[in-house]
Amino acid sequence: MGGSGVAAVAAPGGAVPSGAVPAAAAPPRTTPGPCAYTETPDEPAARPVPLPPDPRRTPGHGTVRVTLRTNQGPIGLTLDREQAACTVQSFLHLVQHRFYDRTSCHRLTAYPTLSVLQCGDPSGTGEGGPGYRYADELPTDLPPAPTDPTGVRKVYARGVLAMANAGPDTNGSQFFLVYANSALRPNYTIFGEVDAAGLATLDRIAAGGIAPTAEDPAPVDGAPALPVEIYRAARRL
């Protein structure tokens, strides 16, 4: 963590000496650039990784290709810096540090309005992340979902690559791949798309269904019945 200070010295038995004030915990470290990646001490990294680089001029143009080599087939991704510069920068940082290698995609959904495969947690529980968070870069031009007459939900189209989160500005390492048009509030950063070969892989995974449990023999949300392991995530030149 960032910052420095002198900790109060404990007296015998662990008590703080009379009149001493316990030192305040140092604030979480935040990178100085525009992306402001911030440590999350209460949610330590599922796999050790440093904070991403955060240059004053974050690359905001062009695309970058990444391949997820999985046991079910390749999933090619095209990351769009213009859509979400800080998100792409973080994702590439995690790829470079092999954060996603030998991880599983822990969640598959098959709701009529939500069809995604979620990945990016080395713990495989859906609770793990990289030990830092950063702000949303939300889409503003998505069409309204035809299934939602209020217009609140938007279409996250087949092939979209987006960040999962636990609320506003809590992006970390988990992401989802949309295999059929889904209706969501526009609260999830879109930062790229899946290629044709990747969609074929996703379709095969989705066709396998969701693993049944003792509580639910026919779930629509849970671990994919065809286990999905990312052997290697690598940038393509």
From TrEMBL:
SUPFAM superfamilies tied to this protein: Cyclophilin-like (SSF50891)
Enzyme Commission (EC) number: 5.2.1.8
Region Disordered, annotated ranges: 1-62
Source taxon at top rank: Bacteria
Top-rank EC class of the record's enzyme: isomerase
PANTHER family per record: PEPTIDYL-PROLYL CIS-TRANS ISOMERASE B-RELATED, PEPTIDYL-PROLYL CIS-TRANS ISOMERASE-RELATED
Name assigned to this protein: Peptidylprolyl isomerase
Source species of the chain: Micromonospora rubida
